[in-house]
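User: Can you help me understand a structure? I only have the sequence.
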Amino acid sequence: MNSRLNSRLNTRVGTGGDAGPRADAWTATPAGGAPRASRSALYHPTVARLTARGLLGRRALPLGALVVLLLVVVAAVRAIGGADDGTAEDVLRGFVLSPLVPLAGVIVGTGAIGPEIEDGSIVYLLSKPVRRGTIITTKLLVAVALTLAATAVPTLVAGFVLNGNGQDLAVSYAVSAAVASVAYSAVFLLLAVVTRHAVVAGLVYALVWETLIGSLVPGARTLSVQQWALAVGARAARGDLVSSAVSLPTAVVLLLAVTVGATWYAARRLRVLKPVADE
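Assistant: Let's start by predicting it. Here is the structure, written out as tokens:
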């Protein structure tokens, strides 16, 4: 079984003709010497390329569906109700920032490493002289980039469609979506490392906590990524339509704590990870 797995993994990495025999794609290997670990502490280009290829192959369709759904809904709202700041804020807060942004985070964050753990191909990656922390931070950077492309940019477009960026709502919610995307990517990447049911757990968190409890229950709002992101995005808005249940300093501290803490713990868990294929 192990020989079949190694053969499959080598074939997979060799696909496209840009890996395989190129040992130096992972590390500089001196002649006759042992491979050296990557010097980069946060980013590894080969890990990034493989992660991006996997995400675009597996998750492009659901991400594209979310973007299309968003644009269809905002176009319909604009056609029916015209340009109205209050309606635009309601749609951007109640439909875009929640639930579409956390859903995009679930799709990308769990997809950055979850499938590799499930099918056992993470064994190949862990066998390379790349630090586990570098693997996690590289996958997080790729996940953040794809989530930003799928949330912040469409949110900006949606805001301009809804009310032409009146009161800077489009910019404000695009900033909020970008900030939330970073935190969600870290949280859902961690979920993919600690549980095989990361997608289910992520959907429960995104739809129940962030969308329902975090939006409606006053006490729970202080523990919502959505509210923290709103506190940051509100600084870019004119007027008082955009507001948050938490102050800006509190939001920044909590966003940093969750993002850094989730990334650190994911790297820690990856060091002791037992791939499914070995169980």
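Now, to help you interpret it: Residues 132-163 form the longest helix (32 residues). The mean pLDDT is 85. Let me know which part you'd like to focus on.
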